[in-house]
Amino acid sequence: MKNLVVLLLLLANMAQGQTIRKRPENGVYLTAKDFEAGIVSHGFTSSDDEKLLDNKRGYIVIKQRDSTTRFYFDQLWGYRKEGVDWRLYNEEGYRVESTNKICLYSVPVCVACLTTQPLYFSVDAVSPLHPLSRKNLLDVYHSNKAFVEKIKHLPWTSSIMKKDKATHKFRFIGWL
């Protein structure tokens, strides 16, 4: 019993000595594995002399105090800007909304133009992106028979975009 108490005290002291590393607000994810592990390359926090510029076609630029680095879209999985993760796919940037059972993405658009943002999905962080629709969900998850049956039996008058009141997530995610 005495040994157990000593062990618990040692573990508590070790845990207090460790610092939790915060993911930088800005930087790039070279691969999907880096994104999943939270490894940001060329990371930095926001300041006046350090910027991530994503308004270029086909590349992003990281300007730091003593250097400027250009990353072409085909070199990266994505990037993190002001604490928000983005995936690059087919020369476009998609905002990462969720990565639970399914990866969900959005594309910011003119608010006055559309009532809802277009949503996209992928099975995981390396899979192709698809517009979120019943047909695409059925095509991509065709081997998941239970999921396919739930989608097929969903009345056409019910939206696939309906959210569960308890989890605040799309209902179909719970079916996966």
How many helices? The count is: 5
Quaternary structure annotation = single chain
Cα gyration radius (Å):
21 Å
User: What fraction strand?
Assistant: 25-35%
Q: Class by helix and strand content? A: alpha+beta
Order of strands in the sheet with the most strands? 2-1-6-7-8-9-10-11
Instruction: Output the helix-strand order.
Output: HEHEEEEEEEEEEHHH
Distance between the termini: 46 Å
Give the mean pLDDT: 83
Shape: elongated
Uncertain runs with pLDDT below 50, 5 residues or more? 2-20
| Count of individual beta strands | 11
Helix content: 10-25%
How many strands, which pairing sense, and closed or not: the largest β-sheet? Answer: 8 strands, antiparallel
